Amino acid sequence: xxxxxxxxxLTSGGDCPGLNAAIRAFVKLALRRGxxxxxxxxGWEGVVNGDYRVLKAxxxxxxxxxxxxxxxxxxxxxxxxxxxxxxxLAVLDxxxxxxxxxxxxxxxxxxxxxxxxxxxxxxxxxxxxxVWGTESIGFNTAVDVxxxxxxxxHTTAESHRRVFVVQLMGRHTGWITLYAGMASGADxxxxxxFPMSERQxxxxxxxxxxxxxxxxxxxxxxxxxxxxxREQNVGIYLQRYIARELDIETRxxxxxxVLRGGTPTxxxxxxxxxxxxxxxxxxxxxxxxxxxxYGGYVERGMPIREAVGRLKTVPPEEYYAAMPxxx
Length: 327
Ligand code: F6P
Description:
The chain is an alpha/beta fold. It folds into two domains: 6-138 and 264-306, Rossmann fold (3-Layer(aba) Sandwich), CATH 3.40.50.450; 142-260, Phosphofructokinase domain (Rossmann fold). It is 40% helix and 18% strand. A seven-stranded mixed β-sheet has the order 3-2-1-4-5-10-11, with helices on both faces. A four-stranded parallel β-sheet has the order 7-8-6-9, with helices on both faces. Helix 1 (19-32) runs parallel beside helix 9. The longest helix has 22 residues, at 139-160. The chain starts with 5 loop residues before the first strand and ends in a 5-residue tail after the last helix.
């Protein structure tokens, strides 16, 4: 394609730490190359309503360590109405490219607009880490924060000889639960990919009791469901179950939105920076329909269509490698 003159950028779906680092890198590089950048407000809502501001260097100055997103975000899906799609397309026709920073829901929308309009580049972000084929902005920070919080529960659990059931975010996958659980030495990790019976959880707690440890930390991902569960929170269900079955004090803690707030780790900042930078390069090279896929400091442009409709789940070998440390 010819010279890139004007591009748009938006953040969509749940926020997470690191979004601003990606926005900053992309905008800075674009401005240095003489490209105008429209920052759409509140995700796709901003595109449909033509609600944007032209971003200047001062808009992205000082935002690197900030959590949240200076653009705002929403779960608004323009694909739900033909009218919204047409309005979005009319706005997009003013641009040479659009950067979408989002998770799986946004990936689906980005793919649809890539098919219709053809100039989309995607940057993956989600604390859940479930976008296929890549690491995602926000996950590393979420694991760090969850680890710190579980560490704090450990000491109080031990002092009071209690079982803490800690429910962590993770709608479809157990990445945060498994990684933060391993890092903090939780005693059982229960995740949607590898359902564990209630009885099995009790066994791990009892094993610890026999060893003289009268406290335990059970980490469970919010996406786990049991047949007998009536409670909305799986963590509350498990806490009540354990309290009923064992003669031991139990407590429930939910670690939710706190994982999405605050400042990103150095790893998330660097990855977000790299992705923002790389996204601009993909546009310059005309490699539309790609996402900035990242794995251990290595990045590549991966077709969005390869990831749509797929979920990156915890592989069996990772879970089975963790299991000997349960109980
Ligand atoms: O996808 C990230 C996530 O934080 C999930 O872990 C959680 O289930 C969901 O978003 C919560 O969504 P909302 O912000 O719409 O309540």
